[in-house]
Amino acid sequence: MKLQFVHLCPQRMSLYGEYANLVMLQRMAQELGHAVEIVAGEAPDLSKAHLIYMGCGTEQAQKFALEVLRPQVDGLKGALDRGAVVLFTGNAMEVLGQSITDTQGKVWEGLGLTEFTTIETRQRTPHDVIANTPPGYSPVVGFMNKCSLTAGVSTPMFESLEMGFGNDCQRGPEGYLSGNLMATHLTGPVLVKNPALAHEVLRRVLTCAGAEVPQTLPVLPHQQEAYDVTLRELRSKGENAG
Amino acid sequence: MRRFLAIILCKLMRVVGKMLGRGSSLPGQFALKVCPDVLGRVKLPPYVIAVTGSNGKTSTVEMIAAILKAAGKNVVYNAEGSNQIEGVTTLILSQCDLRGQVRGDVLLLESDERYARHTFHWFHPTHFVITNLYRDQLTRNGHPQWVYDAILPAIHPSTTLVLNADDPLVACFAHQGNPVKWFGLEAWPGATKEHHGMYHDGAFCPACGAPMEYELYHYNHIGHYHCTQCGHHRPHPDFAVTGLDLEAGQLVLDGDTPIQLAFRSIYNVYNILAAWSACRMIGVDKHTAAGVINNYILKNGRMVRFTLGHHKGTLLTSKHENSVAYDTNLRYIRDLGTPCSVLVVVDSISRKYFTGETSWLWDIDFDLLSAPHVQRVVLSGRYVHDLALRFECSSVPQDKLVLSASIPQAVEFLEGSGDEDLYVVTCFSDRDKVLDRVELEDK
After folding, report:
1. What was the ipTM of the complex prediction?
2. Domain layout of chain A by residue ranges
3. Interface contact flag, B356 A15, Cβ < 8 Å
């Protein structure tokens, strides 16, 4: 089967190697025998996408991305309605909400796909992250490089963090998850680092495409070991990580 | 009185610290506690040159110091690279007399880009060299534009900026209205029409966000650019490399001064150019400056030659969390063309702080190592699996890869096999883990 991934604003919004998230999903899907087309652009056609992804950018780039996406809101809603996955990571998450208030006090109207609001801060709080997951699922590891507080999330992706700053408080709930609208402020190749999270996204993508969802999904060589080392290191040395 | 006490305390602690082999920050830290505004109470030399930027600070400062000394100037500078306010305070107070007069003709400072505003709160440079702004240590720096915003408050209106014309973000510092002198690299055979690298931070104008166009790229986002909308463009340089043949290791400065390169890297070209520009601005003649930088071999240990078994080895110090530094060294290896193996080590991501963040590996263009003359790529260190996963998604043939989490075992493996040249690419935080196990050429 042919899968289509749309990478929104790949140059403006791939500040921490986020492009690798799609590389990883592509490799996993290929292992299952699927062909993957990655369509990248600022205003691509969303009507055939099984996955729509946007990564993190500078605060300035995020505002450009927001304006570029504004005419595409109906396209995003339509994609969600037909079961496509919309995954936004890093500060791309913020554009999904009602508004972003920047450090000058200017209020940027968000895409309005969710109810939350974001306020940017002058302080940046970069730190390593361990996100708690339901029993039986591996904790999610990664990094967050944000300068904002997001309030009003009723359905977070992670109920709490073992390490790191959540949507608006230390170790608090993080991200947003409602249906196939998935968002987390974790930056970088979070799906590379977390095979279990990549599998969760892939399952939804395969379901959207009407493809069989195997019980066991592929893991790339070294992926599990890289995850294990990071989790071990964070737990043993990460107390001072911020 | 407080100034006097701070100076005495700093000098004493510096002497004791040196005897104990301690770093240079602590005396300044205590002096600042005794007299917080001590840096505003000392009399500085007529020239205060500061150098900041993501890459090239230490090398540029070292070359400026060497040129100025050759020109007969008495230079006070932080050779140890302690580039935050405490280290700078130690340097200044230990070099001034008890009345607070800094001895010397020139105060030369390497300045941490994020903390420059603290250092230059009490005094300001007469000349501020800004080399470049890249993705560098993003786990603490956020992103280059964030660093740009952090440097802005450090710029006093009367400071003359010495800016890299080829970096579109650095060029934005000119918008402050300061006096500016530009340095840049003119077209050369190695410049490309197409962008190379895993990401393109020059794709959009840092001033207005519109798409940018490049006439040519020197490397990454460094080149000749113009914005398609707001007019932001590469300024005409006041100081320029007007001819460059990297293969032959030759460059020409300002049209008439040939220089032989000891290290044939584009980085070295920019560091030389920045040092040349700063020194020419304060009156050093071309002959003296050229005499120093001709075949100049950096003493800061960024490049170390060694022997391991039958291998002739070179350590090319990169910086973890700095993909441009890696790309530059990988490009150097690719362009050599002679049979070699490469050892890449990622063990401790930083020597100053802990993080498990490895996103930056995905910004490095490891495809550069898919060149046929690269025979083996040995990956090692705690994060060997992150490296291996990154290489799994590169064009480097997998049968060329050798993995060893243990650095001693990786070194032992190389020692016992082959006689090709060996290049080690790693960071300050990890390089001694290799260098302690090889025979250094210059001990």
Report:
1. 0.96
2. 2-102+109-240
3. no
